[in-house]
Amino acid sequence: MKQHEQWTSKIGFILAAAGSAIGLGAIWKFPYMAGTNGGGIFFLLFILFTVIIATPMLLAEFIIGRSTQKDAITAYKTLAKGSKWHYIGILGVVASFILLSFYSVVGGWIVTYLGKSLTGGLSQFSLEEYGGLFEQTIANPTQVLIAQFIFLAITIWVVQAGVQSGIEKASKVLMPLLFIIFMVLLVRSLTLEGASEGILYFLQPDISLITPNTFLMALGQALFSLSVGISIMVTYSSYLEKGENLVRSAGSVVWLNIIISLLSGLVIFPAVFALGLQPDEGPGLVFVVLPAVFDQLPLGGIFLTMFLVLLLFATLTSAFSILEIIVAVIVKDNQEKRRKIAIIGGMIIFVLGIPSALSFGILSGITIGERIIFDVADFLVSNIALPVGAFFISIFVGYRIPKNILEDEFFQGSTVKKGLFQVWYYLIRYVIPVGILLVFLQSFGLFG
């Protein structure tokens, strides 16, 4: 195995990076965020913020990684020798441990529901009964821990095989399959009687629904949906060859993410409206409302199983990237240690995730600031680590890295006009830090 691995192709990198970005954010979180924040107007603002804020941040992480060819901690040490900027990378690694510890719990729920769907255990229930089933499922200690272990075992198996033979190979299979399944579900959802109401809700912006909170929620979703803030993309881009076009690669990842978000909305909202349900069901939309929706459709069990397979694929591709940032920091260029580190890291994450897995059952009485353990872990990553990390990465790139180095990386392998660099540089230095700060303040309820 090569001392410093690289992606075998540009498409391999794009699919892996897009897989990291899509995950639960686009398929699980995006629909319920849109459903609770105005539908079409949220989607419009999400696209706007993705283009002007999240995309420049993604490109900034690409530049850090590709320019140094180093892991998430060493990259900052290389660009800012003798400084404390590498703490950004340390924050990313710590956040990754916490993130995958509860992310794998949700992955386990998907594994459990997929198993129930395949055995016919997700049919013939009312909406209320589906809610009860979900509560029973996540409260069962043995079931959630076994499912979480299975999810992490798959993740470890892929990551330990390496960048080329593991992550890239898996992404090249899973991502195209994800799109195929999405298209089948899309056709089925759009042909339901009454689907047009859901399409209008999702694609027709209603300006009267705009609030300060709508802006901030859309900004947060755009930022987090591209996996920026904890140096995941620094790690992935460090495996790129020097001649790759970073601008085009970032654009490809962004548009894939937007397309998946669009497809998620067009699969879910028409189905929800066609059956007279409400779009603002929150996080339970996938596990409670969708099974009820599919149960009322011809061949609904098949379509529900397909959706759960799709959700599992997307969740796994994100999990690969989260574990990889941890493995890369420890392995560095000694690839002989990869298998051992991947297994040890995965097992540590499993142990860390046990309290989160049990926080809906036997540990539900343990709360911190009125939050159960799972919600505390989620809050630490989503509302603290991600915005703080993204804020300091934007400051680091905008003010610490010399402008000539940024220009060299920006234009390497690219034919874009110089004006585009100036726009990106202005956004990184002035617009993005303010935008991220607003999201961070929103997480503490300082805005309405």
TrEMBL record:
<keyword id="KW-0472">Membrane</keyword>
<protein>
    <recommendedName>
        <fullName>Transporter</fullName>
    </recommendedName>
</protein>
<keyword id="KW-0769">Symport</keyword>
<dbReference type="InterPro" id="IPR047218">
    <property type="entry name" value="YocR/YhdH-like"/>
</dbReference>
<feature type="transmembrane region" description="Helical">
    <location>
        <begin position="42"/>
        <end position="64"/>
    </location>
</feature>
<dbReference type="InterPro" id="IPR037272">
    <property type="entry name" value="SNS_sf"/>
</dbReference>
<dbReference type="GO" id="GO:0015293">
    <property type="term" value="F:symporter activity"/>
</dbReference>
<feature type="transmembrane region" description="Helical">
    <location>
        <begin position="342"/>
        <end position="368"/>
    </location>
</feature>
<keyword id="KW-1133">Transmembrane helix</keyword>
<keyword id="KW-0812">Transmembrane</keyword>
<feature type="transmembrane region" description="Helical">
    <location>
        <begin position="144"/>
        <end position="163"/>
    </location>
</feature>
<dbReference type="Pfam" id="PF00209">
    <property type="entry name" value="SNF"/>
</dbReference>
<feature type="transmembrane region" description="Helical">
    <location>
        <begin position="215"/>
        <end position="240"/>
    </location>
</feature>
<dbReference type="GO" id="GO:0016020">
    <property type="term" value="C:membrane"/>
</dbReference>
<feature type="transmembrane region" description="Helical">
    <location>
        <begin position="12"/>
        <end position="30"/>
    </location>
</feature>
<dbReference type="InterPro" id="IPR000175">
    <property type="entry name" value="Na/ntran_symport"/>
</dbReference>
<feature type="transmembrane region" description="Helical">
    <location>
        <begin position="85"/>
        <end position="111"/>
    </location>
</feature>
<feature type="transmembrane region" description="Helical">
    <location>
        <begin position="380"/>
        <end position="402"/>
    </location>
</feature>
<keyword id="KW-0813">Transport</keyword>
<comment type="similarity">
    <text>Belongs to the sodium:neurotransmitter symporter (SNF) (TC 2.A.22) family.</text>
</comment>
<feature type="transmembrane region" description="Helical">
    <location>
        <begin position="252"/>
        <end position="277"/>
    </location>
</feature>
<feature type="transmembrane region" description="Helical">
    <location>
        <begin position="175"/>
        <end position="195"/>
    </location>
</feature>
<feature type="transmembrane region" description="Helical">
    <location>
        <begin position="423"/>
        <end position="447"/>
    </location>
</feature>
<feature type="transmembrane region" description="Helical">
    <location>
        <begin position="297"/>
        <end position="330"/>
    </location>
</feature>
